[in-house]
Amino acid sequence: MEGPQQIASTKMFGGYNKRYKFQSRALGCETTFTIFFPPAASEKKVPIIYWLSGLTCTDENVFIKSGVQRPAADQGIAIIGMDTSPRGLNVEGESDSWDFGVGAGFYLNATQGKWKNWQMYDYVTKELPELLKANFSELDTSRASIFGHSMGGHGALTLYLKNPGAYKSASAFAPISNPSAVPWGKKAFSNYLGDDKSAWEAYDATCLVKNYQGPKSVEILIDQGEADGFLKEQLQPENFKKAAEAAGVPVNLRIQSGYDHSYYFISTFIEDHVMHHAKALHS
Amino acid sequence: MEGPQQIASTKMFGGYNKRYKFQSRALGCETTFTIFFPPAASEKKVPIIYWLSGLTCTDENVFIKSGVQRPAADQGIAIIGMDTSPRGLNVEGESDSWDFGVGAGFYLNATQGKWKNWQMYDYVTKELPELLKANFSELDTSRASIFGHSMGGHGALTLYLKNPGAYKSASAFAPISNPSAVPWGKKAFSNYLGDDKSAWEAYDATCLVKNYQGPKSVEILIDQGEADGFLKEQLQPENFKKAAEAAGVPVNLRIQSGYDHSYYFISTFIEDHVMHHAKALHS
């Protein structure tokens, strides 16, 4: 595996935002990712939190808009952000809509014909951790947590539930909590996975949590804006909460009055999420 | 004067980012501005800090990228951000370069022919404060401070020095400290103000501070990234510091090792600046 090439470095809160590109095996294309290294990374190995972004985002959005670097610097934790799909493959129709194709990988492994490169699940759970471990001695990839927003909030939940023990903790902002039941998810799953609903269940957090057999000691934190325009039609966090409760998986779903779906909402509560993960990563 | 029309509202840190548009007399066009109202504004009048942005920015950049809302919410201070020039006037050549014309008003009153609408000085020092006072009872416009970045950092210094007592305190990130002596400033001043150098001195902070006769009890805070690619050719904060020292105006110029000219640099130190102003505004 060829190592990543650094394409940008900017100092912030005593640490560095560093952006890299490399040729991904899983995705079959060049892709970019960004790491925020906290100041502590210059002295010792630091734990990491993977951030999974929402529809239309690249690896950069969370680093530009969320302010996550301030609490991450304070807590001595690195933040890893990756792109939300393959890019530049020129698959027919890949950019026809903003909620499917490019920028909309849904953190799954597609099985349907022309979307064969949409292997975001393998990329995030296997290739990227291996690449980080092989190339960044500052990072302790054995201490990892995961969080994200919207499509990426759902990605964080599914990757956590499908890989018991791989992540110390999970949290989400406004996750698409039950994609099999909503328009965004139905469009993505039917195109990427075909019509067999059992294939959908393997990537639906509300289905997955029902059969989750991993550690249940760490609560899953979910923040959801009460004024989020996508709440009723697309997100449905209550479905996930009910299924988790029935399965004995602790979930703290906080409905935040007056907040919408934007990075302004994320910025407001990102410190709470970093602290949530810090507790699990530093224990 | 017709009142401003709200065009967006988003909750953040318990307060609200609200964006407005109105027909500006000073600029002769419709323009936008944004106010972050801290949570305290729902209970009492709050002081304000004007933020003046740099080249190419609109009123939105600082609210999206700097994280200023967190300390402003904590301190109970409103942040006012405005556009950086008139827009939509279709003046010949107004968008030919990124460092002149649209997005590059330099917070002065232009005197030269086709740039007659570039009256950013009057807009920021007169029209906007009057509009805020008339339309927002939550704001105590008599308690105001001013800060900004690059072109806007220089704007903050000049508006503070030209209006003794109007602003309780001033600070700047990477200001263009002596525009008469650098390429960005020479291009802007010669086009907006003509060739008479005495007209330039009336908008050059390093010239203005030499003759400043206002209050000298409050230190001016300046942060400058040591790795800022514009430092040597365009910014020259040492010129301002030397002139201020000779005039007995206290300046705290902090050279920040490894930081560049970006919003990552601003984000890192914005809390320090809000606290600097809070001290002056709450005393």
What does this structure look like?
The structure is a homodimer of 283-residue chains. By secondary structure, chain A is α/β, with parallel strands linked by helices. Chain A has one domain (5-282): Rossmann fold (3-Layer(aba) Sandwich). Chain A has ten helices and nine strands. The first copy, chain A, has helices at residues 61-65, 69-75, 120-135, 151-162, 183-193, 197-201, 205-210, 231-235, 237-247, 263-281; strands at residues 5-12, 15-24, 29-37, 46-52, 78-82, 139-149, 170-173, 220-225, 251-256. Chain A has a nine-stranded mixed sheet, sandwiched between helices. In chain A, helix 4 (151-162) links the parallel strand 6 and strand 7. Chain A starts with a strand and ends with a helix. Chain A binds chain B through residues 10-14, 17, 64-65, 67, 69-70, 225, 227, 258-260, 262-265, 267-268, and chain B through 10-14, 17, 64-65, 67, 69-70, 225, 227, 258-260, 262-265, 267-268. Chains A, B: The active site is at 150 (charge relay system), 228 (charge relay system), 261 (charge relay system). Chains A, B: Its EC number is 3.1.2.12. Chains A, B: One of its GO terms (biological process) is formaldehyde catabolic process. Chains A, B: This is S-formylglutathione hydrolase. Chains A, B: Its main location: cytoplasm.
